[in-house]
Design brief:
The complex is a heterodimer of chains A (about 725) and B (about 50). Chain A has five domains: about 120 residues, Calcium-transporting ATPase, cytoplasmic transduction domain A (Distorted Sandwich), CATH 2.70.150.10; about 70 residues, 2-Layer Sandwich (Alpha-Beta Plaits); about 130 residues, no CATH class; about 140 residues, HAD superfamily/HAD-like (Rossmann fold); about 100 residues, Calcium-transporting ATPase, cytoplasmic domain N. Helices cover about 50% and strands about 20% of the residues of chain A. Chain A contains 25 helices and 26 strands. The longest helix of chain A has about 35 residues. The two termini of chain A are about 45 Å apart. Chain B has about 50 residues and is mainly α. Chain B has one domain. At the A-B interface, helix 2, strand 2, strand 3, helix 4 and helix 5 of A face helix 1 and helix 2 of B. Chain B: It holds the Pfam family FixS. Chain B: Keywords: Membrane, Transmembrane, Transmembrane helix. Chain B: This is Cbb3-type cytochrome oxidase assembly protein CcoS.
């Protein structure tokens, strides 16, 4: 494969964190920051005031306003206020919240586009109703001068309206013609323009038929479809694409200077503080610590790291400060290689043709041929240009895809609205259609089926030991220590001289004895299965505290429900055999693989695809990105890493997994409704086209047929809600 | 039929009034959060916060 065949790496999802760094840098020094939070669970008046009160109570917040439609809050606050503090305040008040990217520029332009469409829609609606009123008079028998006057007034309203409201169609049609293609907008523009032009000519000649009302209602109904489409897309984009990067890629040099990752060179020495993410690939030169590799490999247990250890970008340093010598930076890192895989898989996905595309591809040429045939036929039969042209225009208006233009957007708006209310955000336009075709579901373990952080499950310690353990645990930010602190109820004992021994554990003095909490090999305890930390009090034998990674809310129910519906379910994890086996047993998944590498995940999915399966991948980590991208359709939780969310077609906003089952059912329903809508549109055409070709279509018939079919299609779509 | 001379301008004027109201509502961003606005009238707090 040559370089030219590669899609641009700039657009790769895993690199999506880089622009965030620039945006953050550009924001500095403003004194006041604007923050956006996503609030997936709010639904009522009490939620609005509850959230606003909780936010305003945070010091430094100047203003907070909730948007219930978008389930978001916009906050104006001092620079000192961090999004984490706000999320914490809301969690304390009982509302789930996630940070959104402050670069809300993209969201504003999306809003502007839908406002612009709404304005054109409103103007078209106003004009349509007024012209329709005048037309009713003509249809009910106004004649001669009265009819001509009414036609002239209609023209005076219709011409400026069409010039303003139908612009989006004209623009798209011109663009398509410029590229020598035919799209849906070409017949639409042609029908609107010909109808208006023919009507002006007829009015000037004092003719009896004018199609001003038809031209306007065409514009109105099709703009309605366009507006629905735009609104669905804006809502998805503004929330999903901007769920911000959890970390901004910056690195601290050994001198204390903070620099963007892009400025690093191999050989540079970096300081990685405890709790920070490793910015680039490198080798440890000084210090010992433990690193959390869960996002990169899916392993739930932290690994020991000392001098000589290889670290990869994306891992988290847990206990002690490390000095890191950069081996690869920027595009050479593990992260960027993963992104490469993703980029290749993405191009395959963008080739998927939606139902609407396929319909339009057949429809546009057919309409033109039909109108031309009507003109040619009547020309040959009567030799009357005016009559032939009139009939051709009537055919074009009648066949114009009013119902077809509404068929897909109305359904996808209803479906995505329904899923949004249940906490699932659809990011990709064809995601629902692809989801309806799925027959195999692949889950990731850590962070997807499980919460991704350990919880204390049991221990052998007496009350005294528990009190000591809790006191020691309080001193560390190691995930096991935090879980221990949260899981024990004992009041902490008075332990003095507490210090963290990087890479090993925590040490302190209690009643003259040395007490230690940490790894099994440090305390001489037996290494065993499962996640555990040990406590040694003086010379006594160490006691164990066991941890499990808790199942995500609704995980077992979701897996069971999906299996009952006949989907093949697989579990792929980079974690150890023990951990994966016990989780597979707990959720009832028969097919599972442990200790699997990121590229093997993607290969596994490609294998399934090659065997004719359509795969839904649910995953959250960096190790899942390639798999997410190569699956037919993919879902990731909101807690997932930015790169994983970017490549996913859908994002779960809440904590529970249950919306997935409903999403598949809704997707299937939506597909059925779309096909039904095509059926309605086809039936309507089957009746009206012969009438139009026979020259029997009057403006009244066109208006009636167009409105009924559009309303029918919309009502059918609304059954999904 | 002479009454039309009066009625048509009147009906166009009234329609135009409606269109003007729509444009004003759109420009003052009243379609940004229809669901939230529907719920906000139920709260006791006086809502004088500007839209963000």
């Amino acid at each position: 494969m040559t370089l030219a065949e590669h899609p641009s790496l700039q657009a790769c999802p895993a690199c999506a964190t880089a622009p965030a760094a620039e945006a953050l840098a550009g924001r500095g020094g403003a004194g006041e920051a604007r923050l956006d939070l996503s609030l997936p669970t709010i639904h009522c008046a009490a939620c609005i005031s509850g959230v606003e009160r909780a936010l305003l109570a945070v010091p430094g917040v100047a203003d907070a306003r909730v948007n219930l439609t978008q389930k978001r809050a916009r906050i104006r606050a001092d620079d000192s206020v961090t999004p984490e503090a706000l999320v914490e305040a809301l969690t304390a008040a009982g509302y789930e919240a996630h940070e959104l990217d402050p670069g809300a520029l993209a969201a504003t332009t999306g809003d502007a586009a839908s406002r612009d469409l709404l304005m054109r829609l409103g103007v078209a609606g106003f004009a349509m109703m007024n012209v329709m009123l005048l037309s009713v008079a003509v249809w009910s028998g106004a004649s001669d001068a009265t009819r001509d006057l009414f036609h002239w007034i209609s023209a005076a309203i219709a011409i400026p309206t069409i010039a303003f409201s139908a612009q989006p169609f004209f623009r798209n049609a011109l663009r398509a013609l410029g590229a020598a293609r035919l799209n849906m907008d070409v017949p639409i523009s042609l029908a609107i323009l010909l109808a208006a032009g023919m009507s002006i000519f007829e009015t000037a000649e004092g003719g009896s038929h004018a199609y001003f009302d038809a031209a306007l209602s065409l514009t109105f109904f099709l703009l309605g479809g366009r507006y629905l489409d735009q609104r669905t897309r804006t809502a998805a984009r503004s929330a999903a694409a901007e769920l911000s990067a959890l970390e901004v890629p910056r690195a601290t040099r050994i001198t204390g200077e903070t620099v963007p990752v892009a400025a690093l060179l191999p050989g540079d020495l970096l300081l990685v503080r405890p709790g920070a993410r490793v910015p680039v690939d490198g080798t440890v030169t000084e210090g010992t610590s433990e690193v959390d590799r869960a996002l990169l490999t899916g392993e739930s247990l932290p690994d020991r790291a000392g001098p000589g250890a290889e670290l990869h970008a994306g891992e988290i340093n847990l206990t002690g400060p490390l000095t890191l010598k950069v081996t690869y930076a920027g595009k050479d890192t593990t992260l960027a290689r993963l992104a490469d895989l993703v980029a290749m898989a993405e191009t395959a996905k963008s080739r998927y043709a939606s139902l609407a595309d396929r319909a339009a591809r057949i429809y546009a040429p057919a309409v033109h041929l039909l109108a031309f045939a009507a003109f040619a036929g009547w020309m040959w039969a009567t030799g009357d240009v005016r009559l032939a042209l009139n009939i051709a225009v009537a055919t074009l208006i009648i066949t114009c895809p009013c119902a077809l233009g509404l068929a897909v957007p109305a359904v996808s708006t209803a479906a995505s609205g329904r899923l949004f209310r249940q906490g699932l955000l659809i990011k990709h336009a064809t995601a629902l259609e692809r989801l309806a075709e799925v027959d195999t579901i692949v889950f990731d373990k850590t962070g997807t089926l499980t919460e991704g952080h350990p919880v204390l499950s049991g221990h052998d310690a007496d009350d005294e030991a528990a009190a000591v353990a809790r006191a020691l645990a309080a001193a560390s930010s190691h995930p096991l220590a935090m879980a221990l602190h949260a899981g024990l109820w004992a009041a902490p004992a008075a332990v003095s001289d507490i210090r963290e021994v990087p890479g090993h554990g925590i040490e302190g003095t209690w009643q003259g004895r040395t007490v230690r909490l940490g790894r099994a090999d440090w305390l001489g305890a037996p290494m065993g299965g499962g996640t555990a930390t040990w406590l040694a009090m003086g010379d006594a034998a160490p006691v164990a505290f066991h941890f499990v990674d808790t199942l995500r809310e609704g995980a077992s129910e979701t897996v069971a429900a999906l299996r009952d519906r006949g989907y093949a379910i697989h579990l792929l994890s980079g974690d150890t055999e023990d951990a994966v086996a016990s989780l597979a047993a707990a959720t009832g998944i028969e097919h599972w693989q442990a200790a699997i590498r990121p590229d093997e995940k993607a290969t596994f999915i490609e294998g399934l695809t090659a065997n004719g399966h359509r795969v839904l991948m649910v995953g959250d980590g960096l190790n899942d990105t390639a798999a997410l991208a190569s699956a037919h359709v993919s879902i990731s939780p909101a807690s997932a890493l930015d790169a994983a969310r970017t490549v996913s077609d859908m994002v779960l906003l809440g904590r529970a997994l249950t919306p997935i089952t409903d999403a598949i059912a809704t997707a299937k329903n939506a597909r059925r409704r779309i096909l039904e809508n095509f059926g309605i549109a086809a039936t309507y055409n089957a009746i009206s086209i012969p009438l139009a070709l026979a020259g029997l279509a009057t403006p009244l018939a066109a208006a009636l047929a167009m409105s009924t079919s559009s309303i029918l299609v919309t009502l059918n779509a609304l059954r999904l809600r | 039929m002479e009454v039309l001379v009066l009625l048509i301008p009147v009906s166009l004027f009234l329609g135009g009034l409606g269109l003007g109201a729509f444009v004003w509502a759109l420009k003052s961003r009243q379609f940004e959060d229809p669901k939230g606005d529907a719920h906000r009238i139920l709260t006791d707090e006086f809502d004088d916060k500007p839209r963000g």
